[in-house]
């Protein structure tokens, strides 16, 4: 998993945040990153691998969960949840398949499992791999992973 992984090209000049915005499936994630003041981190040098919950993934959360996370008094919890979706380094889909418990930016590990042709991280299935950006790679996931409380 080097920064020069030949399996993942440095597509375009867009950083992770701009790439996610251009994709059109990550509006809620963008809003949450802004509320958590993490936008500049993911616009930074990186590289990072983001397991990005789609808008549909956020819709599957229990009612009011997202609204509660977006409240200023819950910012620390929102930051923890979002950082649990970011792994330092650039990992292609093929790289992720070789991992068992990568350590996320938040500090905890997330189990990677394979069930037939489905690749999962935490409780989420990766629905689209290798959305590349200038400072990392995005893998779309169908569920918001919530870290255990520490």
Q: Looking at the structure, what is the overall shape?
A: globular
Taking all residues together, what is the mean pLDDT? 91
* Counted beta strands: 6
- Quote the distance from N terminus to C terminus: 29 Å
CATH class: Mainly Beta
The topology string of helices and strands comes to HHHEHHHEHEEEE
What's the total helix number? Answer: 7
- CATH architectural group: Roll
Report the sheet-strand fraction.
15-25%
Rg computed from alpha carbons, rounded to a whole number of angstroms? 14 Å
Helix content: 25-40%
If strands are numbered along the chain, what order do they take across the biggest sheet? 2-1-6-5-4-3
| Tally of separate domains | 1
Structural class: alpha+beta
The CATH superfamily is known as FAS1 domain
CATH fold title: FAS1 domain
Biggest sheet statistics: 6 strands, mixed
Give the key terms:
single chain, 150 residues, alpha+beta, FAS1 domain, six-stranded mixed β-sheet, 7 helices, 6 strands, globular
Provide a descriptive summary of the structure in words.
With 150 residues, this protein is α+β, with helices and mostly antiparallel strands. The chain has one domain: FAS1 domain. Helices cover 31% and strands 22% of the residues. Strand 5 and strand 6 form a beta hairpin. The N terminus is likely disordered.
């Amino acid at each position: 998993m080097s920064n020069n992984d030949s399996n993942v090209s440095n597509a375009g000049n867009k950083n992770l945040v701009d790439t996610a915005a251009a994709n059109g499936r990550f509006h809620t994630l963008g809003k949450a990153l802004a509320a958590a003041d993490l936008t500049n981190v993911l616009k930074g040098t990186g590289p990072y691998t983001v397991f990005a919950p789609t808008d549909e993934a956020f819709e599957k959360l229990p009612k009011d969960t997202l609204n509660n996370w977006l409240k200023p008094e819950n910012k620390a919890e929102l930051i923890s949840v979002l950082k649990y979706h970011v792994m330092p380094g650039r990992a292609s889909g093929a790289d992720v398949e070789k991992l068992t418990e990568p350590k996320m930016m938040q500090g905890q590990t997330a189990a990677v499992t394979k069930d037939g042709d489905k690749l999962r991280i935490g409780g989420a299935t990766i629905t689209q791999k290798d959305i590349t950006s200038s400072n990392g790679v995005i893998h779309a996931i169908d569920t918001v992973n919530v870290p255990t409380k520490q």
